[in-house]
Amino acid sequence: AFICPIVHQEVRITGSMVVNTAADDDLVGFVWGWQNMDQFYLLSWKQTYQNWFGCNGNAGITVKLVDRQDPYVIQDFACDTDTPNVTVLMTPAETTTQGWIDNRTYDVEVLYDLNQTEITITDTTNMNVVANFVVADGTYPSGQFGTYDFSQEQACNGPWQSSCL
Prior knowledge:
mainly beta; 6-stranded antiparallel β-sheet; 14 strands
């Protein structure tokens, strides 16, 4: 993750994401509510299904609450199931089972409020909403924002902007 030093609370964050290759299908996304490297929210978007690292890596978006208690293991980031360090708040069945498309730019809007976060992702080629969902959790009502990828080459995030809600 690459973290912005500004602490956000009750904010609208907008930006874009794109993967500029057809040679990989791993994870892109972002973090918010970042308290430190052990506590944050994570949106992780997988392009296609993959059985990896002892778990199913399902296509689509998984939202996680990270509260690290033990040393990190690869399953904390690769799997869309709970671990001792991660609670899955939303699975692809609750967000979108559609994976990201190679070389396609997506606009992202994050409405980060005290007790919930609404996330909307729009495909810029046709302006269709790919995902729109509310993460109903207030564990981290304020925190930093940052970009994230896991084993994904040529993932590009940004620019990102924020404004008060």
